[in-house]
Structures are given as structure tokens and as C-alpha cells.
Amino acid sequence: MTEQTDVVVIGAGLAGLITARELGNRGHRVVVLEARDRLGGRVYTESRLGQHLELGGNWLHWTQPHVWAEVTRYGLEVSRGPRSEETYWLAGDEVRRGNLDDFMKLIDPGMTRLLEDTMTWLPRPDAPLTVENLAEVDQFNLQEMLDKLDLSEDEKNANEAAWVGHFNAPLDQCAYVNALRWTAGASGHWHLMHEASAIFRLKHGNDTLVKAIAEDSDADIRLNAPVTAVRHDAEGATVSYGDGREIRATKVVITLPQNILHKLEVQPALSEGKLVPSRERTASQGVKAWMRVGRRGGGPIKPFFAYSAQDKPLSVIRTEFIGEDDAVLVGFGADANRIDVTDIEQVQEAVRVWRDDLEVIEVTGHKWGEDPYAEETWQIQRPGQLTKYHAAQQASEGALHFASSDIANIWAGFFDGAIESGLRASREVHAELAG
Hints:
This protein is an alpha/beta fold.
């Protein structure tokens, strides 16, 4: 006999957990099916290298309204990494050294010119399709817009490296509009965007937010329960999962990342407005590497940032934790094929681009591109994807609704976007169930 419930939520990341909490609090019976053996999706906190490391999503900020409301709701403590005392960057193959202000001054003219029309194109980041002719600018990739600025070699390398740190992808595959979207979320100020995307974190691990939401929900959350098929009709949907189990629901909320949505068997099939961008994939295909380092010969390590160029295995590294005679660094690169973040020798070679005085002692990371339940890091759109597909990606299809940070309005790709999306989906599902 097929099990019955009001709502099935596919995926126990932030979007799925928020959806489940909200619907459960409104009196609906909710079952959450999660393929992994843990909660959180692309929020993935592990104790490694002697610290709580964020193998997935890392940072949040008070300019991100949905996640900050959750931080306030659960009384979670926010902290930050150590303030940088040194900054390294490349000019050709020459390593320059200064402080963070020096680097910010170097990239300021390029950033300012690149983003000066942000609020013209995206006056309301919460409604990103407000400007009717947005497609005119959505055809461009970020690299060609940077190239038009005709920057000096120093400025070009520095700006490219900074954007690789933000976008985790080759810049010629990233939508220029994605840079505008991030900046619009920070009211058009690129310095604030830089801070909002890369500084503050939850002190005791970002999984504390995941756990708080799950504990605040009366949903039936089932781990190790991969969904294999969804068959829907006018009355609801039947979800097949695990080893041949089935559950029938009036509504289903699908929270899969963009890159894997087309791999889910759905009958009748999803609209092309969802399937085409899933097959096209997001631009994000980079890496996040964690490493514990010591100074050769011993001694303390000052907190630092380092920027190279987008063709290096790691374009950005920064200090996240400081010990007496070691430090834990995080690094980002544009292409996961250029470096194995679990190979200590490859990571050591990447660090040598800036510094040969540091010895890499331990490394770790998660290969998100090879993760069958993600196949992407954080969402970065390709040119044209926002204007062609965004509305269709958000739209419900009969009994099926959709939530994911990938399809959020304001801070797509962030914790905030996942929560925004879950709130929207739960509101729409409740309205239909109550109607």
C-alpha cells in the first residue's frame, strides 16, 4: 500500500528544510526525502584540520535579509576570519606585496567602471527581470566586459583573480549580469558586495543553522532516501525513492540544484524552461581547497590574502584560522580539472605561486563537481540564462513546486537565496492546499 502525505519535499538542504518547517508549522503533513546521509545539501560543515571547516557554503551577511532573520530567530553567533595583515598579488610573473588596502585600491577603478550601471539594469534585485531589455546586457560574459576596460596588466590580473574568487568559474563562461546581481544585492556598492560574500560566518559552524531549522520542524525527515522518479497528475504526485518505496502527496517540492534537475525522472516531463538550463549547466565548475600550513623554519604566520590570475590552479587563498605556529587557509580556483584539492603536492605547488616559505601540512576539500547530488558549487549563471529561464525555473507545474538557491531572486547561490526560495515555495504550496 502506498504511503500518503500532504507534501513531499525532495532534498534536505536549506531550501528544503525551510519549506518543510513552514508547511509543517501551518498544519500540513510533510515528508522530506534526502539522498545523502546528512542534512544541509551544499552546506557541509566537518571537523577537519583541527577546525570547523565549511566544505560547502561559507559566508553570510546582514545585507542578506532572509538568512539574517534566521540567525536572529535562533540566536546564532556570528564571527569572522582574522583580518589580513599582508596581501600578495601578481603582476605578470612578479609577486607584489602590500596590504589589503593597496589591493583594493588597485582593483577599485576596474570594479567601479565594470559595475557603474548596476542599478540601471537591476534597480530591484528582488525582481531581477524588472528592466524589459535586460537581455541586451545579459548576452555578455564577464571576461569580455573586463576586456573592454583596457586595464593595465596589474589591474587586469587583480580584477580577474578577485572575480574567480567570487564566481568559482572561468570568467568567459560567467554572465556579466551575475556580477550585476551580486552588486545590486549590496545596493550597487562593490566594496559592500565584496564584504557580504566573503567575510562573516557562523562561529560554531554553518551546520548549526541547518540543525536549528530541522529541530524547529515537525516534518518527517528521511536520510539515505534518494528519489528515483516522480509521477504527477491533476490530483497530486507519487514519488518513488530508496529501494522501491513509494509515497503519494498532494504537492511535491523539488529542491535539486540546476545541474542535476534534468536527471530526475519526472512524468509528465518538466517544461523545457527547466530542462534546457539544467542541461546547459551553470558556469560554476571550480574548486574550494582547505590547507593547514606552517612556516619553513618555524614561527608565526601573519594573516594574509593572496591573488594570482585566473589561469592558475588557485586564484585566491586567504587565512581563515591562525594558530601559534600554523594557519588554516582556504583557496579557490576557476577549474576543478586543474587541481586535486586532496593532493598535498598539487596544493603545495599552487601555494608556491606566491610564497615558498610556507609548507603545506594537510589538505582537504569536497569535489562538488563529482558530487552526484550537486554537480556544481554555488550557482553562477551563463550568459542569457537569467533572462531566458528564470521565470520558468521558478514556476510551479501542476502539483510540482520548486525551491533552490539556484533560482532565488536576490542572493542566488547563497544561503539567503535558498531560504528566500523555500519561503516562496512554502507560501505558494500552502495557498493551494488551503484554497
